[in-house]
Amino acid sequence: MAVTDEAIEKIKGMIVSGALRPGDRLPKESELAADLGLSRNSLREAVRALSLIRILDVRQGDGTYVTSLDPQLLLEALSFVVDFHRDDTVLEFLAVRRILEPAATAMASVRITEAELDVLTAQLDALGAAPSVEELVACDLEFHRGIVQSSGNSVLCSLLDGLSGPTTRARVWRGLTQEDAVSRTLHEHRAILAALRDRDAEAARSWATVHIASVEQWLRSTL
Q1: What kind and span of H or E run contains 178?
Q2: Tens digit of pLDDT for each residue in 56-71?
Q3: How far is C-alpha 187 from the geometric centre of its chain's CA atoms?
Q4: Collapsing DSSP states into helix, strand and coil, what is residue 66?
């Protein structure tokens, strides 16, 4: 493994230094192994590892390329890890979401367009006053994804998209068991939207924090 780690570090160094750029094709295996002072086997293992985390793209019969290195692509590995979460770690995912999402919501307050605000409003209006829990949670996911995308930070967007999955079951369970969960969620969504329309970053941040913390507090009380 130490030899493979060395190979990974050397390829990483080429990318970080700019010797290999997004979209570039790697030299032939024999040439690259010789240039880096590696065995072809260790180089092959390094390429396999880097392709799994979307740094490299191995195209059968064509060669190996550096991917676009787009944050959303690279953070797909996070989604893979998140899929293996245990139920007792949901609170930790919610805590991370509570740290990141209010910041993203505050950022969105100065960047979100009127057209994007109208889309969010239409989503809430379409739910009505008494949606099913499943409808509410589906809208909740889209509502927050739309806001985070409007923050203009693709890294934050990818991180939060990956973190939203593990908390979905908790949100559904809360909606089924907490008497006022649906009405509270709708109220908080409207408050977040109003703060965004007012371009009030601190109000948007505060309401996003309240919204996520309410799920977190309910979950703590059930454990």
Answers
A1: none
A2: 999 988 999 999 888 7
A3: 25
A4: strand
Burial string for 145-158 (b: 16+ CB within 10 Å, else e) reads ebbbbbbebeebbb
Q: For residue 64, what are the β-bridge partners?
A: 58
CA separation (Å) from 71 to 7, 51, 155?
A: 23, 15, 6
**pLDDT (tens digit, 9 = 90+) per residue, 169-180?**
566 656 656 677
128 Cβ contact partners less than 8 Å away, ≥ 6 residues apart: none
User: Model pTM?
Assistant: 0.65
Q: What is the CA radius of gyration of the chain?
A: 22
- Segments in the chain forming alpha helices (H): 2-17, 29-36, 40-52, 71-74, 76-82, 90-108, 114-127, 133-149, 154-177, 181-197, 201-222
The total of other beta-carbon atoms located within 10 Å of residue 116's CB is 16
From the CB of residue 193, how many other CB atoms can be counted at a distance below 10 Å?
20
**Residue 221 has which token pair?**
């009380």
> Closest Cα to residue 181, out of 148, 211, 205, 161?
211
Amino acid at 162: G
**154 — phi, psi (to 5°)?**
-70, -30
Question: What is the distance between the alpha carbons of residues 218 and 170, in angstroms, rounded to a whole number?
Answer: 9
Tell me the C-alpha distance between 41 and 49, whole Å.
Answer: 12
CB contact at 8 A, 120 and 147: yes
